[in-house]
Known about the structure:
The protein contains 16 helices and 13 strands. By secondary structure, it is of the alpha/beta class. The protein folds into 2 domains: about 1-200, NAD(P)-binding Rossmann-like Domain (Rossmann fold, 3-Layer(aba) Sandwich), CATH 3.40.50; about 220-430, Rossmann fold. The strands form 2 sheets. It has an 8-stranded mixed sheet, sandwiched between helices. Strands 10-9-11-12-13 form a 5-stranded parallel sheet. Helix 6 (about 180-190) links the parallel strand 7 (about 170-175) and strand 8 (about 195-200). It is elongated and about 75 Å long. It starts with a helix and ends with a strand.
Amino acid sequence: MFNELVKKEKAISVIGLGYVGLPLALEFAKKFRVIGFDINESRVEMMKQGIDPSKELEADAFENSDILFTSNPDDLKNAHFHIVAVPTPVDNAKVPNLKPVLSASRAVGNILKKGDYVVYESTVYPGCTEDDCVPILQEASGLKSCVDFKLGYSPERINPGDKERTLTTILKIVSGCDEEALEEISKVYGSIIKAGIYKASTIRVAEAAKIIENTQRDLNISLMNELSIIFDLMGIDTKAVLEAAGTKWNFLKFVPGLVGGHCIGVDPYYLVHKSRQLGYEPQVILSGRRINDGMPGFVAKRLTQDLIRLGRSPMESKVLVMGVTFKENVSDIRNSKVADLVRELMKFSINVHLVDPYASPNEFAHEYSLTLMDSPTNNYDAVIVAVNHEEYKNLSFDYLKSLMKEKPILMDLKAIFDPKEVEENGIAHWRL
């Protein structure tokens, strides 16, 4: 397979051209013939014009690429090495929504040929690739896995907004259904990944490795969030505590915050789902999830208490929230906990205004039924800096004060500002 791909006698397909699939497809397209498939026709048209709908890649990333962008599943017939990189979200009940990955499996199965390879990058629970996706591939194609076609799993490790740890500089885990598949898949990915390849012993091991990467981060952040709640009750600055504790060589330097996005706030539920199927109710994982999911409510309650202490009625208060994306310097609004924070504030009848230099107003309105303003107004009782976008890090206190009433509150959720400087400028300061 690898040699035929190198000679461009066969092609690679990438199904799902989002934050994971598009960078991968373009990187492969520097060396191989690639078919990039996505069901969203408008996104495909943008990519044909050299525009990344996710705003992660510059126009030059599309140059010198042997790639066909398409929303026609029939075009997948011309590929022999298929990579599935579709989203794997959870529904409102926190249950895994496998529809995208199962639909992609059906689309691949419909065009699958003897000798083809299918590799999944979508984050799933251990066993999903072989137990849920393979039966669809086999039914749709009439072929048998690891006999007529080869199977693999290589978890994505894309970090949106990170310009240093990019696709090719991050060690890549690969796995295959047998030794031959593992070797060929390793060669294909190894041709573009400069950081090297780690060969997992089985597909299930590779799936499990991915799911616990984000589960571990979720739990560590949940501990910091719980500490923040406790220290707030004690009148102790959490950041100061963490800086002091961080002087010990083996202290893990995590910080509190709103845990959203499509990875940390989602992936643990996949492991929980599988565990429950096997009859075990996870304790630690769900405890961490409860803490992190509860942080928007904690922040909203804390602000409401501060407004009341200042003699202001929440119903007559106006608050500006700066930043609505799930992390800094990206346009991604998926699973934004800032949206949850806004709804929690609205429960106290607080009038909330929202701004963000990266997020699309149309996408945000469609996803959350909330309105993004082009620019803030003034006379705010409080300003919440919820995301540490680069544009917010150097805001002057004169500018912040121009937005606020007398005796205002600055809620600095990402601890961007120096508390002493904030207080010296006549602004009450609070941070996680």
